[in-house]
Recover the amino acids of this structure.
């Protein structure tokens, strides 16, 4: 008799209606365990459906780790967690060769896979590891493979990295380099809950009731949803706005707003455009539409661009955040996209 995981490997047929149904079911299941954070959950799902990695930033205790563990449960994915520390070495996450001995007493080297060989990797406090260890993630995130010694090994499909970092405790941390930041599909800011949500969190976590999450979708459904999202048409004027948004983040381009010319050192890369367009396609499907609207781009632009805009020293001195620059970019690009 086939197991549930084996049955999930069969090709899945996904219609736009089924796409929305699965996503709503995932969100409903997660809401049984998490309080609030609806926008955070929705944007994280958009990134996972798009096949991208997510950088979660927020103060401790806001449920970043809980979100990642819960996603692994409802999507029936293999899960691994790595606590990044200054003494963590690249081999600790990629794996290494160890000496083994068979029954005949013969010794040989055998590869011991690291935690990267999973479906959903939680890289907890990623900015606490040294750049040497952080860079070990670059190949895995970009190419879905790991090179150890003279051999390259493919990672499991699907493979997602959900990394967390604490924005307030910066002592002993190593800021992520631009090349690694660019490999994250989204950077999401985890908001602090309001009074009602805080009270509900206390009720759920200090009572006697235990909540068990059930799988809602599996690998095949996730793969089919990703394929369907890439088929969503995007009109030429919507694509023009997406391109205008990216160009407006570069201070040397004509359409850049004053905030960009003054505060930005370097703007978003072509990966930013890819994330922007794919996320807008997925958002359209989640909204029950099989076409991308201008508002889809504006809605996902902050998450797709905030970590791809690199500010200069003047921005640091003035206390200007990347989100303020992104909003200026959105306003300038959308104003230029309006019919005259």
């Amino acid at each position: 008799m086939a197991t549930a995981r084996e049955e999930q490997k069969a090709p899945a047929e996904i219609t736009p209606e089924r796409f929305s149904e699965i996503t709503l079911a995932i969100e409903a299941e997660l809401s049984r365990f998490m309080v609030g954070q609806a926008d955070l959950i929705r944007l994280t799902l958009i990134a996972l459906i798009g096949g991208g990695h997510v950088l979660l930033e927020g103060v401790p205790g806001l449920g970043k780790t809980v979100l990642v563990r819960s996603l692994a449960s409802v999507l029936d994915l293999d899960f691994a967690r790595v606590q990044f520390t200054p003494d963590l070495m690249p081999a600790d996450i990629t794996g290494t060769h160890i000496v083994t001995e068979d029954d005949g007493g013969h010794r040989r080297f055998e590869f011991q896979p690291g935690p990267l060989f999973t479906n959903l990797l939680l890289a907890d406090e990623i900015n606490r590891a040294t750049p040497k260890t952080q860079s070990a993630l670059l190949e895995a995130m970009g190419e879905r493979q790991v090179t150890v010694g003279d051999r390259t090994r493919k990672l499991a499909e699907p493979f997602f990295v959900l990394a967390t970092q604490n924005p307030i405790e910066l002592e002993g941390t190593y800021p992520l380099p631009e090349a690694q930041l660019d490999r994250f599909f989204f950077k999401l800011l985890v908001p602090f809950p309001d009074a009602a949500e805080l009270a509900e969190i206390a009720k759920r976590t200090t009572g006697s009731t235990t909540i068990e999450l059930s799988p809602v979708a599996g690998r095949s459904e996730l793969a089919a949803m990703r394929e369907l999202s890439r088929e969503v048409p995007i009109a030429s004027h919507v694509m023009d706005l997406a391109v205008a948004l990216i160009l407006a983040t570069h201070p040397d381009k004509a359409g850049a707003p004053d905030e960009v010319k003054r505060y930005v050192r370097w703007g978003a890369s072509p990966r930013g455009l890819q994330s922007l367009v794919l996320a807008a396609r997925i958002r359209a499907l989640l909204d029950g539409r099989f076409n991308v609207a201008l508002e889809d781009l504006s809605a996902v632009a902050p998450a797709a661009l905030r970590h791809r805009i690199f500010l200069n020293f003047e921005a640091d001195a003035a206390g200007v955040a990347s989100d303020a620059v992104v909003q200026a970019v959105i306003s300038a690009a959308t104003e230029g996209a309006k019919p005259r």
